[in-house]
Amino acid sequence: MAAGSKEKERESSEKREEKNYVVKLDGKQVKLTNLDKLYWPQEKISKGDLIYYYTRIYPYIGPYLKNRPQNLRRNPGGIEGEGFFHKDAGDEGPSWIKSVSIRSESTGKDVDYIVCNDQATLA
User: Fold this and answer.
1) Residue 32's pLDDT is what?
2) In the chain, what's the furthest Cα-to-Cα distance?
3) C-alpha span between 48 and 64 (Å, rounded)
4) What is the domain extent for residue 23?
5) Closest listed residue to residue 117, CA positions, set 31, 34, 39, 28
6) Which residue of 76, 81, 91, 99 could cross-link 112, Cys pair, CB 3.0 to 4.6 Å?
């Protein structure tokens, strides 16, 4: 492959990673980012693949998630890297995401857990 072709491929890849998509789920605008990021490199499963899967299975798992506080296992460096549990909803998410405040026994502080009552929140 010529050097120019490699450079164009890299630029194209960078542009794909920078793209943000907005989809409408449950009447809500959901911003999706970094859809090409590989979560499971060996299997070549991306963040976009995972979100697609979640939106397809929501009708089946939704009833089991409803009104239940959730946390998210995050692995910023990929599935093989260090991970942590993200519990506090914080102020960065969309205003339509519901949360419930629960006092942490270990810290004595209130934690705002996300409540996943719809497909948009799961995505």
Assistant:
1) 92
2) 60
3) 23
4) 3-122
5) 28
6) 99
Q: String of b and e for 77-97 (b: at least 16 CB within 10 Å)? A: eeeeeeeeeebebeeeeeeeb
Q: What is the SS3 assignment for 28-95? A: EEEEEECCCCEEECCCCEEHHHHHHHHHHHHHHHHHHHCCCEECEEECCCCCCCCCEEECCCCCCCCC
Q: Which two tokens stand for residue 27?
A: 């009447």
| pTM more than 0.90 | no
Q: Is the pLDDT of residue 98 over 80?
A: yes
φ/ψ bin of 111: left (φ > 0), alpha (ψ from -120 to 50), beta (otherwise): beta
Domain total in the chain? 1
Residue position matching structure tokens 């970094």: 34
Statement: residue 121 has pLDDT above 50: yes
